[in-house]
Specification:
Shape: globular
CATH architecture: Alpha-Beta Complex
Mean pLDDT: 89
CATH class: Alpha Beta
Helix content: 25-40%
Order of helices and strands: HEHEHHEEHEEEEEHHEEH
Oligomer: single chain
Length: about 280
Amino acid sequence: MSTLTDGTLQDFLRHVPPMTIAFDGDCAQAAGVDLCVAAINLPHRSDRWQALSSRLATVGLDKVIQVPAVEGARLSRDQIRTVLGGSLEHFEDPPSSHFVLTHPAVGCFLSHLAVWRWMLQAGVPRMLVLEDDAAPTLDFTADRLRMAVNSLDRGSGFMLLGRIIMDGMAERPSGSELARIYFFNGTFAYLITPQACAALIRSLVPPSGHIDHEISKFLVARRDTFAAHYVEPPLFDPDWSLRSDCYVPLTETSDADRALGELFRSTRHLLEAEGRPLLPAYT
């Protein structure tokens, strides 16, 4: 995680592939909420777009912006070198760690980054960002969605409507359906405001890991000034029947899992030492 100067940040953003996003300004959803909904989808995966559109329409989200995802495999080495801000010496090697970026992971990172940048440019006050494997849960209701949207501005402007909590690093809801979260997996469904977009863009580029891990590290590092929340029970889950477009098999899985576990343990220890009421850890 880094913090860039304005000039360096603008130089970086010039290398993010631009997105052409069709948006007429109409955010009035059938669910009774005025909410911009943007879904990231690889242009050639029309099957996933059609399935997502159908799932969302059944819960009253009938005005969804199709965001053309950045396909990492089509990025040139020069583009990737510029985006990562360093050497590509081992970038083409099969990944041996949960922390290393791959072509699809770079594409995923840039897709979310481009959505955030578009949101800032378009002046959208709040947005639900989905990946195309997001599926409304049985606990999804229009009332719960409106509650989440109405609560968004009272926090730091970032709220997960679906997530996998890592090693219990979140707090238990108390008196409401919302609670703070620190470390999570999955960027398939979240609410965000322009203020949160600006804070994340400035702190997460150039990327050094998968976007959910990088956001999580930001949430831990800025825990005294930036409070992210999650909804319990979740409004969205990933459709596990769909193969992730970002998945690349790891080599040396045991070593990779051990290193990730060490990060979880040290981060959880830091949070517990401050008296934060976390969920139970993995056993």
